[in-house]
Amino acid sequence: MQAYVIRRLFLIVPTLFIASLIIFFMLRLIPGDIIDQMVGEHGAVTGLDRVAVERAMGLDVPVHIQYVRWLGVWPYTGDEGQSEFTGFLQGNLGTTLWKQIPVTRELFARWPVTFELGVLAIIIALIIAIPIGIFSAIRQDSAGDYIGRSFSILCLAVPGFWLGTMVMIFPAKWWGWSPPIILIPFTEDPLGNLGMFIIPALLMGLAMSGTTMRMTRSMMLEVLRQDYIRTAWSKGLKERLVVTRHALKNALIPVITIIGFMMPVLIGGAVIMEQIFALPGVGRLMIDAINQRDYPIVSGVMIFTATWVLMINLLVDLTYSFLDPRVQYR
Amino acid sequence: MDDTGRIIAIEVTEERKRRSLFVDVFARLVKEKPLGTFGLVIVVLLLLTGIFADFIAPYGYNKTNPAHYLAPPSGEHILGADNLGRDVFSRVIYGARISVIVGLGATAISAVIAATIGTLSGYIGGRFDIIMQRFVDGWMCFPGLVILIAAISLVGPGIWQVVVVLGILFGIGGSRIVRGAFIGIKENVFVEAAEAIGSSTGNILIRHILPNIMAPMIILFSTQVPGIIMIEASLSFLGFGIPPPFPSWGGMLSRSGRTFMEQAWWMAVWPGAALAIVVYGINMFGDALRDLLDPRLRGGLGRYSGAKARMKKRQTEEQEEVTEAEQ
Lengths: 330, 327
Known about the structure:
By secondary structure, chain A is mainly alpha-helical. Helices cover 74% and strands 1% of the residues of chain A. In chain A, a hairpin with a 5-residue loop joins strand 1 and strand 2 (83-84). Chain B has two domains: 24-293, MetI-like (MetI-like fold, Orthogonal Bundle); 295-327. Chain B contains 13 helices and no strands.
């Protein structure tokens, strides 16, 4: 088990390395660089200034040098000739180009918003999806199954951004109610904070519950055809026992993977919901940074989310061995 | 007498065998899956709307008319008009065309890429497979929408750019499933048997493996189409997809749609509703298709309910026995 965890952690290294290559070089290829934009906006950066600005931002060296510096395996040389390694490996994601503050500080200021949104959405999705999924499976092709499946596909089909927009329009039109715009910190007003997050989290949770429900249903259907279920029936067990004790336990194991798969979807949903409900999360940070060509923020956000996704996937795999005694990692 | 009966019987079985997979699945779809058939109707309607948009839409998608600025739904504009006086109904109709182009185009690209990477990775195996899969891992650990936004800002907005970028990204993700199916089939005894009788590699791939991975491929791509249509709309909504004035359903809800939505709700309602119906229909159809094609769900149908019925029967029998014994 220990050896397995260590091996998996080592496997994360090449994956993250490739991910960092992809993101770093892709962003550098985006046409229109930041200096042009700064010139456009302030009209102040010209001639000599431009060289100085590029140097200050570390954009004066070739892209591959920028990359190894960013990774932290190549030193930055300061004005006085001193050199130091500060990069991803040292836990430093660089400085934002516009505000000139550390990317990590910006990231950790925004992260709690996205994290809260994501956790709430997962909880809501599971509460909705699992009971309906089970019911749909044990009453396959009944009216209830059709309603449950229609609902799950409806959850997948109704676009989150549209539903979010509807929530913005109609309550405002009919009752003059609109979602709060300024973030209420959880520590100040827990209820107000939850009230602010619950609608976007519900919309994200609904979208996620569609897939989870389908997964639960099809896993249940598969498990219910196993021999040990037939054995359970022939022992004369009641339906409730067969379903909860024998089928559900085994059917839910793959459903756990859904949470792993869902991480990227979740972050994508968060980007949209943060945009609609004006929540200052990582998604908003990322969209704004792309529009402003603030690469350090974008690559920082992306490498951060990628690390997060990989870690969650590892955790999901490890919980497998606790849930399913047949799965043993060596 | 007997002989004719036998001949007829043989002909019937021949007839059954000769029915292609396509016809067979279609017949079973209509017979067994009412919701799937409903989904198919929506898919066909979407395709027809996309193809014949020019004949259905009463106005051009970018025909402005300042006199009808934010006109509410009426006889002239059945779904209202937008902030440039363009007919919302016509724009929704033309939006179907964009969804069809993006959905089918990107899925086709994705299918080619997924099949190529998946087959190579699954067939060659070994070190090549390991390295290839690390690259796929590298792509897949990014949130889809986020990497798409970055990729679109790289190539610039536009219909074909969106189609290609979506196709590549979905293809890389889909290659996992093709590879998994491929490896699963490769281990089968019939492949070993084909190798033993000296079939060529190409023959094994085409005759023995391809037919067996068709079902997961069809399932994969029928689930990708709605995903692609949805994510194109999300991208356009965020301003990174199809640029205006093209009427993407997602794009109609962004920018002007959001600025004017409180005065003119019809600008925001209809594109999203169209999107929801279409994604719903394709998903329903894909779902039914999966039920019909997935070999793991084939044959065993109803065993569970059968077991339950036997249970009930046995219970009543036991009860009868008990009551008899008591008597």
